[in-house]
Amino acid sequence: MLNKLSVAYNNRSISLESVSTLAILGDNGVGKTSLLERIALVNKSNLDIILNYKGAVYYEKFKVTIDNQEVECSQIKAERLYNLVVSEYSYSCLGNLKYNVMIVYPSALTVHIHPSDHDIKFSEFVKPFIDGIIIHTANDFIYEKNNTITFLDNLGKGVSSLVKLLHMIYINRPDILLIDDIETLGLHPKRLTSFFEWIKQRIQEGYLKAMLFTTNSDSYTYLAEVDESSKFLLLSQEDYMIMNRQEVLDRLDYEDLRYTALKLVKKDES
User: Fold this and answer.
1) Which mean pLDDT values do the consecutive 10-residue runs of the chain (270 residues) have?
2) What does the pLDDT read at residue 270?
3) For the domain that residue 224 is a member of, what is the CATH number?
4) What is the rounded distance in angstroms from the CA atom of residue 34 to the CA atom of residue 145?
5) What residues contact 11, with CB distance under 8 A and at least 6 apart?
6) 160 contacts: CB under 8 Å, gap ≥ 6
7) Which residue of 10, 46, 203, 253 has the fewest C-beta atoms within 10 A of its own C-beta?
8) 32-40 and 45-54 helices cross at what angle (nearest 10)?
9) How far apart are CA 262 and CA 25, in angstroms?
10) Do the domain assignments include residue 179?
11) Domain count across the chain
């Protein structure tokens, strides 16, 4: 659990306490992804991940504070041309955090592996979700069970995406996991619930400090059902609201939290 997380940018500051799992909701364009990316950019290694996904990155004058440690950035700028040559690349940030932060874009999960990776150990790692052997090849995953071998993608997008995400967690061992648009994992509600339960257990066992994700779907409801300590950040252009799990469950009797976030936008516009 993170004792405190705050992000200051554009003359605003968002501050949260006791964060283990956090769902970020809001209308399109209010800055859910950019909030997640600012947090990710406390680790310079995430700049390449964001750049490879978006083709260009530009942020200036923001500060992220996590558990009394802070990183303040004056400018982060990078651009990749169509020929994949990086034309600009600057990372002007001061400070560092003791935590390893990793951002994931489920719609662009790729496999970066080597045939000598520990296949059996990883297969044990993902056993709660898929029972078989995951074989690493140079560019893909192959799945084997009962002498039947197939490409992992043939088992369906949800299974394939989840295994690729778990592989990134297995390899990188992040302290803070950030997932943008979690619904693009394509998980069935039952499997999504199992994933949230797995995340909760890893936090309780100390393998993970926190998971934050953005969403425009009802995935937040499954988190609320699973994790008593979950929190929910409703974001608008100018304002924000933080709700705990019980407040969300009580509200679900009469309103979808996504509409609550929209009304927060309307309040700002009036």
Assistant:
1) 94 93 93 95 91 87 93 90 66 90 82 49 80 68 70 75 87 94 92 95 95 95 95 91 94 89 61
2) 40
3) 3.40.50
4) 41
5) none
6) 141, 152, 153
7) 253
8) 150
9) 9
10) no
11) 1
